[in-house]
């Protein structure tokens, strides 16, 4: 048993006693020792550093009761590959299960890049009810607070609510922020990657471990995949047209965001052009 503890720690250097104990149970081992005993084994083999203990505090946050009620989305801070490619991982996380919906190595961080990633995610897992992001580009319009962006309009037409973290309060998107910390600790720290393709290979490998093998403390040491199921709301092949009520006044918006209503010239988001 001690050899298995050491083997798992060497394979996953950031896993502590509780995660290793649960993984041994999931693998079918009998008479698995308590987490404290597993931790003692790690200490005995000099496999725990002071920094590991400092990061072991549990992360507690409100969570939704069902998967796909809320997804959290953001870009991880960028870094360069050895070929000087800029890489910013796009992450999408299910709030209830902590299941990694999307983990994609990206160069640009624009609307088209996000839409490409989300189309892939929607095709595999269906549509969530709501997506939460921060207020920066391309999610929000930092220069025009309250204005809808092209990305927001696209999501609304798909029947997805979009919400934004409070300014200067990134903890509103806390589960995805915590996911970024784990990604950094278990994949990115102290490593160099030759190309963006190399990054994606490592992200794909780790995402499988994270979703299917790694016990998650915030969900009772279950694995994210054990709590996740795809959404029954399928991604439509054709973007639905907006629906209007019988008493709604439909106005045409110019490319510069201007419209005319009751003799007045008004300006709205350019994303509403049409």
TrEMBL record:
Start and end residues of each Integrase catalytic domain: 63-232
Listed name of the protein: DDE-type integrase/transposase/recombinase
Molecular functions per Gene Ontology: nucleic acid binding
Highest taxon in the source lineage: Bacteria
GO biological process annotation, one example: DNA integration
Pfam family, one: rve_3
């Amino acid at each position: 048993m001690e050899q298995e503890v050491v083997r798992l720690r060497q394979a996953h250097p950031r896993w502590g006693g509780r995660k290793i104990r649960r993984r041994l149970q999931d693998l079918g081992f009998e008479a698995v020792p308590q987490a404290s005993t597993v931790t003692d084994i790690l200490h005995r083999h000099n496999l725990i550093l002071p920094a590991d203990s400092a990061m072991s505090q549990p992360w507690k946050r409100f969570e939704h009761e069902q998967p796909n009620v809320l997804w959290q989305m953001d870009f991880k801070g960028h870094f360069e590959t050895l070929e000087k490619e800029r890489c910013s991982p796009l992450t999408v996380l299910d709030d209830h299960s902590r299941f990694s919906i999307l983990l994609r190595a990206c160069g640009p961080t624009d609307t088209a890049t996000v839409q490409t990633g989300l189309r892939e995610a929607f095709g595999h897992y269906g549509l969530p009810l709501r997506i939460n992001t921060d207020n920066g580009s391309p999610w929000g319009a930092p220069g025009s607070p309250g204005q809808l962006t092209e990305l927001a309009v696209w999501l609304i037409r798909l029947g997805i609510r979009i919400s934004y973290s409070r300014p200067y309060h990134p903890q509103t998107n806390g589960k995805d922020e915590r996911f970024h910390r784990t990604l950094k600790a278990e994949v990115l720290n102290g490593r160099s990657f030759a190309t963006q393709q190399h990054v994606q290979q490592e992200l794909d490998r780790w995402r499988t471990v994270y979703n299917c093998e790694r016990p998650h403390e915030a969900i009772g040491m279950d694995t994210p995949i054990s709590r996740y199921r795809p959404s029954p709301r399928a991604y439509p092949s054709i973007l639905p047209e907006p629906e209007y009520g019988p008493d709604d006044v439909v106005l045409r918006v110019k490319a510069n965001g201007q419209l005319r209503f009751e003799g007045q010239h008004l300006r709205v988001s350019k994303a509403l052009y049409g």
